[in-house]
Amino acid sequence: MEQIELGDKVRCKYSGFEGIVVADCRFINGCVQYSVLPKCKDKNEPPKEEQIDAQSLEIIEKHKPVVVEEENGGPNRRGIRQRGF
Q1: Reduced to 3 states, what is the DSSP secondary structure of residue 42?
Q2: Distance between CA atoms of 9 and 18, rounded to whole angstroms?
Q3: Of the four listed, 3, 11, 65, 75, which is most buried by Cβ atoms within 10 Å?
Q4: Model confidence pLDDT, tens digit, residues 1-45
């Protein structure tokens, strides 16, 4: 079974509920549940997330991390009287 990670798009096998995994909860008895947030249907009302057991979920699409390369504006320069140097 493939490991579910935060950001994965999942579907409940029994209810058909679909959404993105936004949190996970691990209980002391070994039960693992995920908070699944569905797509927003109404712009005036935020969607309600559902807690679903791990064994009830199947992965539709794996989360692809977004890599953002930032430019820092040039080489680092130290000040002449910088404290500690």
Answers
A1: coil
A2: 7
A3: 11
A4: 579 999 999 999 999 999 999 999 999 999 999 999 998 877 778
